[in-house]
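$ run holo --ligand "magnesium ion" --emit tokens
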Amino acid sequence: MQEMIMSQAQIQEACARIGAQLDERLSKDDRLPVFLCVMKGAINFMVDLMEHVHSDIITDYIRVSSYEGLGSTGKIVLKQDVSHSLEGRTVVIVEDVVDSGLSMHYLVEHLKEKYHPKDVIVTCLIDKQAKRKIDVKVDYCGMELKEDKFLVGYGLDYKGLLRNVPYVYVPTMDEVAGWEKALSREEAAKKELR
Ligand code: IMP
Ligand code: MG
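-- output --
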């Protein structure tokens, strides 16, 4: 049986709550704040969250990777950097999950060192706390998860699959085996094309 972690209704509630809190905090800023989406996992959350923000904001995107299949590799690689000048602005980092904290720690340090923002605010959909390796400050989160679980859906993927499911859940091992089969068919098709 699939274990539901955040239903569509719970996700929408979280987006409304966090959006309103951010709106309140940002409306007094003189320079336009930047909502920085951490690709690719946070795209779904970014879209729904922004609907609840009515202040003027700029959007930007950054891409880091650390995760392979079911677990984090621990090594963070910057794959795509921001495209705006962040100097003197408030940056709201929009992330799907904070797990070991390594990616978020890397991101905050990277932004502060390279771009000198006025402030960095961290928001994530799920704050997974069981395997935290480094202290990171999460300002706003949709929910806290105390146990270590592998999640998919709503941007969270298994090897690129499942991002399109509109809720977050823990897949069964049978489901994972099914996705592996689909992925190996893809590999076979790729070889045929060569
Ligand atoms: P961290 O560096 O260990 O905190 O890992 C954070 C990144 O790993 C997030 O940006 C997520 O995209 C990804 N991630 C963490 N937990 C999960 C999960 O349960 N399923 C899918 N991706 C995850
Ligand atoms: Mg991510």
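-- notes --
The first helix runs from residue 8 to 26.
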